[in-house]
Structures are given as structure tokens and as C-alpha cells.
Specification:
Number of helices: 1
Mean pLDDT: 83
Number of strands: 15
Structural class: mainly beta
Largest sheet: 6 strands, mixed
Amino acid sequence: MFDISIACGLAGSNEDGSFPHEASSEPAYVAYRWVSVCAGIDSTNAAGTFVECGAARACPDQTERLWRLWGKRLDGTWDPLGSQCFGRPPTAADTPQPQVTPGLVLQALRRVGLPALAARTQPAGKTLVNFATIFYADPQPVSRGLRLLGHDVQVEATPTSYLWHYGDGTSARTESPGAPYPAMDITYKYIDAHVTVHPSVDVTYTARFRVDGGGWQSIPDTVTIVGPVGDLRIAEATPLLSGDYS
């Protein structure tokens, strides 16, 4: 179980009274804080306290004061999300708590990481010029346990595509990981001999998650992991005559 501790702060509304939307393509906020518009989020007196200034008195109702809502990302940075007028300091009862969203799980999964794959070849280590060298990888489904916002989150990631870098400036994308001989699903012919190339493969995962044993939810975005480079020597075979042909 990977424990990613996240503080549950206040969540807040935008200027129109709506709550921030957290889609996987948008920042996922793990905590919220109301701060006077007269103070920044890093101000020493900004943690839920009010600072009086002209901007704070810009509300139509002069008995109210203007507060700004900040959202905290998983990496610890804060974003201003909007402002709202209150006749008293805003409290947790005014806003919902952060939720485990696909975007939040995706951010956490990218921080934790997924397995890289090595590009395997047959022949291994040394091949021939103009020869159909076989490429393949050995992918496996991955299960991760995360602790987010006080919830147990189970993530399942499946390799779905592969970007092969053959080491000579050429690449190709496949949905198959290939297989060793006698299968020849993925092959490549090198045209330059007496060189050493450094092939690799990048694997792209799709994932789904569930919270506290509930129903599975899809994560629309993917995670791509860059694989390590290997060494492959390209040799040239010289034909030789043998036997008695007289």
C-alpha cells in the first residue's frame, strides 16, 4: 500500500457560487482554503483570518467582505479559484470536502510510477544487417494500492500500446508487445553494419480505480513509462564457400 498523505481542507465555490469541477484533464485539488482578498496564500496571517483593505469592501452588501478560495494541488502548489462575499468568515459548512477524482488518482499514479519494460531482441546482443531482428517485451498488469484523502484506492493498470525505438532514429508504435521466436509479430531490419544501436520501448498504460471497495471507474488519460536502453551490435555476415565442387 502506497500511503500518500493529503490534508482535507475546505472546499469552496467560484464567483458564481458553483463548486470547482475536477475532471482528469484539470487540476485535482486535495485541499481548499478561504483567504481574505487582501492577503496571499503564503501570508503569515492568511490562514483563515481576515485582512481589511479596500478590495475586501467591494461587495454589493457593505456588511459583507470578499474572500478568495485557493485550491491545493498534489504537488503542494496553490491556485486561486475564485472569490465570494460573506457576512462572516467562511467555514467548512459552506463548502464540500475534496473528493477522490480520476484526475487526483492519475496524478498520484504518475508520482508513484508504473513498471518500465525492456526491449528484448532475438538474436540478443548481436544481430545481422538486413536480417529480420525480432523485438518483444514482457508486460504484466499492475495493481497499486493508494491512500488518498483518507480513502483506500485500488488502481489497476494495463499495458495497451508500445512505442519501439530501434536505435537508428526509427520508431514504430504497436498495440502488441510482440513475442519471441517462432512468432515474428514485430521485426526490424537494420541497413547499416558495424555499429552498435541502443533500442528501447515506451509502454503506455490505461487504468481504472475504485474507492473503498466500490465500483470501478475509468481514468480517461493514460500513463506512459519510458523504458531503459539496451545495446545491440549490428554485424555483417560474409559468405564462404565450403566443400568439394570439382
